Structure formats: C-alpha cells, structure tokens
Amino acid sequence: MDILGIETSCDETAAAVVRDGREVLSNVVYTQIPLHRPYGGVVPEIASRAHVEKITQVVSSALEGRRVDAVAATYGPGLSPALLVGYNAAKGLAASLGVPLFAVNHMEGHIHTPFLDTALDPAEFMPALALAVSGGHTTWMDMPSYGKYIVVGQTLDDAAGEAFDKAAKLLALGYPGGPVVDRMAAEWFKSGGGEMIAFPRGRVREGVSALAGLDAGMCVSFSGLKTSLLRYVQKEGGAEALAARGEIGRVVASYQEAIVDAVAETTARALAARRRRALLVGGGVSLNSRLRERLKRVADAAGVPLLLAKPKYCGDNGAMIAGLAYFRRTAEGDSAMKLDISPSAAIGANMV
Fold first, then answer.
1. Are 335 and 352 in contact (CB under 8 A)?
2. Cα(44)–Cα(130) distance, integer angstroms
3. Greater model confidence, 147 or 13
4. Which of 172, 164, 175, 173 lies closest to 260, judged by CA?
5. What are the structural domains, with CATH classification, of the chain?
6. I need a surface site. Which of 11, 85, 88, 307 has the fewest CB within 10 A?
7. CB 178 within 8 A of CB 238
8. pLDDT tens digits, 150-200
9. Separation in Å, CA 53 to CA 15, 50, 58, 81
C-alpha cells in the first residue's frame, strides 16, 4: 500500500510516499529555518504563509507522477495556522484522487521513524518504551502493543529542544540552537574538556500540581536550568565576555550535559520499572550526539535494543506520517474528512 504523507505542524513543509509503512519511495522537505532565524524562533504567521507558498510544489515533488492508495496528514499537535494548510491540502487531494484520508498524530509519527527504511517488524519489539524528544515535546510512553501509547512521563514546561534554542539565543549562537550546541560541546570535550558548571538536572518534586497524576521521578523541568544559565551568564559579564575568554564551549557543554542527564536518567528509571523489549526514540533532539551516546548506554544496561531513526528522518518529515498511517490511523475515511485540526492533540487519542 503506497501512502502519501503530508506534514506541516511547525516550520517544515514536508511530503513523502511510503510503501507498506517502511519503504520510503520519496521524501521531500522544505525547511523554513532561514525565514525564522532572524527572530530566534518560529513565527506562526510566517510559517503558515510559507506552507501555503510551498505545499503544492512539495507534494508534487513527492508524488513524482506516482499513484497512491491513500493520503495521510498531521492533524495535531502543532501550530494552528501551519496545521490548517497541510490538513486541508490533504483533504482536497484525497477527495480529488478518490482515495481514503488518514489523520495522524505528529508525535506518534516521530515514534515510527526508527522503522523507516528498515525491514524491522514493529510488533516484534513490543512491549516497548518510547521517547519522543523534540523542539516541542519530551515525553516517555509505554507501548504495550504497536499503536497503543500510555504517557508515563513528560516535561512540565519547556521541551529539550526549546531549552537548547533558548540557550543558543541567550549566548548569541544562532537558530536553531540544538545543532550548534551539540557541535560546540563536542569540540570542547575533544579538546580535553575540564571542570563542568553545576547546572540543575531538571528534577521534579512530588506534589507539584503540574504532574497531573504522573510520577515525579518520570517527569522533568527545564525552566530552572534556563534561569540558572541566565544568572551564570549575567554573573560572568554577558555572552560577549564569555566568548572573549573562550569559555562558551564549557558553558554549552555543561548546559547540554544537564539536559542529557535529565533525559537519560529518566529513561533509565522507566526501563527499570518494568520489562520492555526495546527503547524507541524519535524527534529532532534525538540527533544530539551526546544524547545518543548516553541512551545507548542506558539501553545496554537494561538489556534492550535502542532503535533510533536515520538522521534524515529525525526532524519533521512526511515519511513518518505516511509510515505510521499504514499501521495506525487516528481517524480515517469520512471521520478524517470531518475531523478538524487539534493543536494540542494528545498522544494516543482516538478520534473515531
């Protein structure tokens, strides 16, 4: 079954054709990073306008004259103006082609990425622990079977990707922040490293109302970490003074280590809580080299395989939407046609 997947939840206009959930036949992504870089973050109005301008070109390039058996699109979570462009385009295209429409949850799509361009059968790795770690989400989920998700932990404020971007903005390192922080931290460690700055590890106290019934040991908070970085930079005379003294590498390495520690330690606790057959990790932040290294150690210690996406599928893309649609459709057919976008769509929600 060949499915066209359309993804426009944030600042990537993406479309792909995937066969039987895993074989990627085409994968086209138009990135808006240059448009948002001057603002240090995504501007919803700019994102929406760019999606409108590029959606037809991107979808046409992904199709390349192919016939597809269905169209799938992200209905949420994401930015409302951005989601509207992609999901409405998918509705019109499905109707014109006379094929079914599938609605797909963006974050569940990220969890499918380790299976793209592989022969792996997702069912063979269940039950699993899944970690979605991206610019907008840091969430741990139990997967008793493929397509079933139970949230067991999450960030209570900023996601890991947001924390990286805000640190880079404070230190005048550019946007997006994750890649440059990863590179500078790696260079600092390679040069010999040194004593690290003791930034907080994002631990959460029991009794916090934002837990909403979740275990405090399975949740993280990065707001205190950001504040700690801000105070440190101010105390040291500002970003320019730190750069002049050649200390930016140490600062970003220490900051990154705090985020990686929080994510890795929480993942280890989740794996120790019950028996799983795999650790699945998806999302843009899963590209971080230090995080990959630590999660591999965590998975090895737990005796389970670590399944990571190929780098080209870590960021937002249409292949993850088309791939997951083959295995799990949040809504399909008439239900999907009647479904509206859901900017705050929950993982594991059933819309039918």
1. yes
2. 29
3. 13
4. 164
5. 2-113+313-338 (3.30.420.40), 126-309 (3.30.420.40)
6. 88
7. no
8. 999 999 998 999 999 999 999 999 989 999 999 999 999 999 989 999 999
9. 14, 5, 10, 13
Helix (H, G, I), strand (E, B) or coil at 313: helix
pLDDT in the model for residue 351: 47
Going by pLDDT thresholds of 50, 70 and 90, the confidence category of residue 137 is confident
| Distance between CA atoms of residues 144 and 269, nearest Å | 17
- Hey, CA dihedral for 220, 224, 230, 235, is it positive or negative? negative
Cα separations (Å) of 157 from 87, 211, 230? 27, 11, 17
Give the helix, strand, coil percentages of the chain, each rounded to 5: 50, 20, 35
Burial of 163 (0-12, 13-18, 19+ CB in 10 A): buried
Q: How far apart are CA 60 and CA 236, in angstroms?
A: 52
Q: What confidence tens digit (pLDDT) does each residue in 123-136 have? A: 999 999 999 999 88
Q: Name the packing angle between helices 248-273 and 177-190 (round to 10°).
A: 100
* φ/ψ (deg, to 5) at 314: -75, -40
Residue type, position 139, single letter: T
Q: Is the dihedral of CA 88, 89, 95, 100 positive or negative?
A: negative
Q: Which two tokens stand for residue 236?
A: 């040291």
Longest dimension (CA), the chain: 63
Angle in degrees, CA 335, 329, 136, rounded to 5: 105
> Cβ of 242: how many Cβ atoms within 10 Å?
20
Band of pLDDT at residue 348, cut at 50, 70 and 90: confident
Residue-wise pLDDT for 96-105, tens only, equals: 999 999 999 9
* Number of residues that make up the chain: 352
- Tell me what pLDDT residue 255 has: 97
Strand partners, 307: 280
